[in-house]
Amino acid sequence: MSLFTEPKEIERLPAEEIERLYPVLRYRVFISIFLGYMGYYFVRNTTSVLSGVLHMSATEIGIISCAGFLSYGISKFVSGLISDRSNSKVFLSLGLFLSGLVNFLIGYIPGIITSVTLFSTMYLLNGWIQGMGYPPGAKTLVFWYEHRERITWATLWNLSHNVGGALAPVLIGFSFGFFGDSALDHARAAFIFPGVLCMAMSVLIYFIQVDRPVSVGLPPIEEWKGNVVSHPAKGREQGPRLSIPDIIRKHIIRNNKLIYCCIYGSFVYILRYGIVSWAPKFLSDSLDVGGKDMGKLASMGGFSVFEIGGVAGMLLAGYLSVRLFRNSKPLTNTLFLALTIILLIAYWYVPSGNEYLWLNYTILILLGLAVYGPVMFIGLYSMELVPKEAAGAASGLSGTFSYIFGSIVATLGMGLVVDYLGWGATFIVLILSAVFAIIFTLMSRERSLEFEKE
Q: Looking at beta carbons, which pairs linking 361-367 to residues 24 or more positions away fall under 8 Å?
């Protein structure tokens, strides 16, 4: 465990050096977690991008994706607990390297990509490693940015997975030109090229990431900012640090607001991955774009425009949360989820045909805007509901709920719905998920975290 051991607090630097170094390192660690988490999304769930390319049924694609999400959900909580006591620079970079390696092997070794069993097994492994990505980023945010500025930096950081998700189809499309012309060659290329890129990126991340401020001779962020912490959820670092069992018992399982937040996250993830996983296939089923390659590009385009809309959605959600709702994530979520319901109904009734491709893309962009605000707030709000020392565990637990319950329904469950009940039933599942997400996000509301009226 020495490789992962959290670096100890060292002697405080001189005041002049602190003032010079603190701003520089804050930008450096942010660049590190942004690029790092973006890289994780290059190799997170390539089957979603390829659902219109792979010659598999919706159920088979759902089984493979579900395997990755299931192991990721469990790993995110375990990794969150470990990350709270680990060196974030090692944790973040090693996970990215290993995930890139697994994806490279999926594409490089013959037979894996044509076997549902082998493919699912490798995705179980990839999902577990992917769980190492979010917790060190969350830890970095709570230790390097104080409460009132954290939502701004967290919003910007969360853009990383939209950028990564939007670039993934571009990288995959770029790789098609180097690995032959068959569908199998294209599918293998979609894993090899991003995998190699992520392994290279992991080296850069290792050398620019820094663990806690106190590990490099800087004071805690609240002390440097001159802020007095009045609520435990807003972070403090003084006093003895609790053990992992004590954190779980004191700050996790007895925290009803956190549990409600996790449940709302599950329903939001049904929306997120229900759209991400099946929008490409829905487009390929409802459109008749000329030429096989054009059909592939049109279906993958649905994936990209949804992620692009998510960038605007997270920026808007962060702005409205502060300016309109005084830092109330649940109230902001309610607004965005209500918009999601309206857009899902509109998307349901878009006519089939190539001439409506622009309308499909327009609604998918708006759906990305509406869904990704609530997605961003799952991990961020869960961290606000607990003290600093439990931030990784809280964000990990919310991720576990989201991926185990939400993503299983969105991938395997909805794959069965698509195959046996059709797209109409699929839209009903998505709309009901938005309704239940509204109910549970309002139940999770903690008024003490909201800013006072000025």
A: 361/301, 361/302, 361/305, 364/275, 364/279, 364/302, 364/305, 364/306, 364/309, 365/305, 365/306, 365/308, 365/309, 366/309, 366/339, 367/275, 367/306, 367/309, 367/340, 367/343
Contact 42, 96 (CB under 8 A): no
| 89 backbone dihedrals φ, ψ, rounded to 5° | -70, -35
Predicted model pTM: 0.74
The span from the first CA to the last CA of the chain, in angstroms, equals 48
136, part of any domain: yes
Give the torsion through C-alpha atoms of 263, 266, 268, 274, to 10 deg. Answer: -160
What's the CATH number where 145 sits? Answer: 1.20.1250.20
305, part of any domain:
yes
Containing structural domain, residue 180: 15-216+244-449
In a domain, 7, yes or no: no
Residue 5 maps to a domain: no
Contact status, residue 299 vs residue 419, Cβ threshold 8 Å: no
Residue 5, Cα to own-chain centre: how many angstroms? 25
pLDDT at 186 over 80: no
Q: What is the pLDDT of residues 212-248, one digit of tens each?
A: 999 999 999 989 987 654 444 444 444 556 666 777 7
At what angle are helices 15-42 and 134-144 packed, to 10 degrees?
160
Domain count, the chain: 1
Cα(226)–Cα(112) distance, integer angstroms: 55
Q: What is the rounded CA–CA span in Å between residue 81 and residue 86?
A: 9
Please state, in angstroms and as integers, the Cα–Cα distance from residue 337 to each residue in 137, 271, 341, 401, following that order. Answer: 26, 10, 6, 19
Residue with tokens 């894996």: 112
